[in-house]
Amino acid sequence: MKKKIVLLCWLLCFFSKNSLFAQQAEEQTDLLIVGGTESGWAAAIQAARLGVKSITLVLDGDWLGGQYTEQALACVDENKGPGKVGWGVDWHPMKRSFHRSGLFKELMDRIEAFNTQKYGSPMPGRPFHGPSTFRPAEAEAIFRELLQPYIQSGQIRLITRHYPVKADIDRRGTHPRLTGLWFAPVGTETPDLHVRARLTIDASDWGEAIQVAGAAFEIGADPQSRYGEPSAPLTLKDYPPNEMNPITWAMIVEESDGDTPIPKPERYDDRCFVRTSKLSFAEMKHLEWDRPLKKMGSIPHWPPAGQASPRQLSVFTVRRIVDGYTSKHHKTSILLNYMLGQDYPLERLPHHVSEALEATEPGASMKNIVLMNRRQREIIFDDAKRHSLCLLYHLQNFVHDRADDQTNSFRHFHLSEEFNTPDQLPPKPYIRESLRLKAMYMMREQDGRNMDGPTKKFARERFSHVMYPDGLFAWQFHYDFHRTGRTYLKSEGNRGPWIDYEKPGRNTSLVSDRSLFPLRSLVPVEMDGLLGAQKNVGYSSIVSAAIRLHDQCIAIGQAAGATAAVSLKEQVQPREIPYNRRQLERVRHALCGESETGMAVLIWPFRDLAPAHPAFVAVNRLAAREALPLKVREVDFRPDQPATPEWRAATMELTMKTLQEPDLILSLPDNLSRGEFCQKLWSAIQGVPIRPYQRLTPDDADGDGIADADDPSLFTPGEPLQWMPEKLTTDQDGLLEKNFSNRARKFNFAGSKTPAISGFEADHGLPFKESRGFGWQQDLSRNVRERKQVPEAYRDTFIFTRSHATWECVLPRGSYRVTVCVGDAGHEQVGQWVTVEGNPLIEDRATVSGAFHEQSTTVDVSDGRLTVEIGKTGSTTNTCLNWIVLEPAP
């Protein structure tokens, strides 16, 4: 009997320690957030600021900040404001800009203030392309600093090194509802924490909460038949299930006092870096790969034998985090990321990786990384690390030049110790693509692009084809797939070297227009109690490649946190909010309102509206509720320009349509700027009940026969609302169909090879000459362009400066009417300035591609010369002068 009792006690003890029936730590919370990524961090702060009393943030590591910190992407990919971009230079056709806003701006302000104090500059790396930089460990401290007040108050509980393994699902309602998650310590599979939550946000790297909850999601490439995207492949024949945007194991290296080479990594093969290899061209040209290399950047470009490629040298400047020559630190640190084939494609894995995966489970080598368990992902991760170290070894041994100091090389750099990891590499790879939550609405490529005209491959300064009625924040970027394919030598197969290559339909030449992110893309199509965040949201694979930047992921998290807070306070499921206009406005108010909840978020993608402007909130809120008269190309709101009677009347008419009291009488002062008018209008109506949406059927809100799941506009019957064809006004067309007198002198600014234009005097940018009677104070003959975009040469050509230039013309004393035209027939231009006789005529003017700005003024010429100045000293943008017309004033 005693033996039986002892055995029973032993069994109870065993199960209590080792089984799923073990005693768990139990926790009840209002909002559970899974993942310490930048999106999870932002969701927690946003919800806390909105008064959610109990928030539990569970992450699978120790670092907050995702791609900023533990993934080591330490050069910020973002939109910074007019004339400023992240990667790329100002003129790049794929880069467009917003002002920083919301939590992203708060974070970056603190990072740059820290950099200034420690390194003497907000961007201590002086990177060639101009992004803000930081040390990952220092950025992580700032993430934690912003979160800490809510941890100290007890509003947020932070739990590290845990991941979800099981979910509680309540299936009694119309939709299944996630009510809790079970978490296991990293390295085990046995849960020791059970968190019950009213609402959960999945901001994890791989959508782990979505997966264990059983919510629907998609992975891999989308065929064209799924969402009708013009750039999607017709079939998935060449797109296996594990093909997706590659991961990259970034490295942070810092300057050493001497040579600090790393050991030769296992399986190092110089042929993996053929684009910049030390091998000779004669050796290279005999390499035959088993996949065609046709797309841009995929065909190897080899330097002469023994020489380094210029692309190898660019790693010193493109992603330099700290420049030791100019900062207080005196040591250079560099981010190594996406250089020389560092990316790690996830399809057609090398033999040793496939073999290790198959040993864990038959078929594992063909699984998408999203679906792999943690042990299987570690096999992928280990080889991605090895591959990155091979790159560093390649740089240290075969790149011995440096642009600013020929005596140094990568042998003078070592891996940073800031991550406190055994291999001195970041804890995680940079993750570009996760699962895609099957959401109430899946964002499609065609929503974000106006598919018109021969320049459809390039970014145009215009609003997108669809401006979602439930939009929560602005975004724009190119559909940026890195090379997703992997090709091997025909002679050696997957046991030999490989390089990455670009697959058809997975390119980076297509760019979105200025777009919105809809609330519906955060909400699962079927499951309640759950919201997506980070890269686990509702969009196609193509769109996912464009919404993955630092600022975008923070905005997604902030939007999810605001949606959760309103859902909890209103005691409704998030899926109801897009159909309830009052609740939708509450979410927008949480993101962009006159409150103490932090910096307001840019909702509507205006280019020229900064959060510091007094009208920022009013303009964003009115635009989002469709109360402003907008045109597709009017991306500048111009808040400080006068509110014309016509514009005021149109705004009032649209505003009244949004109110439940359409007969409301408002009396607003005259002589207001557009921004002041919006401020007073918003102040007068924000407390007035908004007109509710009329939902005709549960699955087709507007009754147009297009199911809500496929209807981007929801309450606009028929096809998505199209922008009206835009006609340029007479002061925007650049044409000379004006009533100039026969005494007018017309000057065209063009190159010397441009044929003479009847009725125009040609200025080729040459210095002033008395015999000619006009010219420049400096030689601008190289600063002339001809676009060949419009038939009239006088508006197709222009002279430009990026700084400041002065033009003079000999004229008798008297009064003159001067008309100036600026703009570019082929590209958008921002920040254009023109002064006539010392009087500002055009100030900080932006023109879109193919549009112009004409302005006239009357001046007195008293010294026998008319003086026209273009550009502005210290400017970083172009002023493009097309033509000038001079005539005696009436």
From TrEMBL:
Keyword Iron (UniProt) = yes
What superkingdom heads the lineage? Bacteria
Q: Which GO terms describe its molecular function?
A: 4 iron, 4 sulfur cluster binding; metal ion binding; oxidoreductase activity
Which keywords, in A-to-Z order, does the entry hold? 4Fe-4S, Iron, Iron-sulfur, Metal-binding, Oxidoreductase, Signal
Signal peptide span: 1-22
- Full protein name: FAD-dependent oxidoreductase
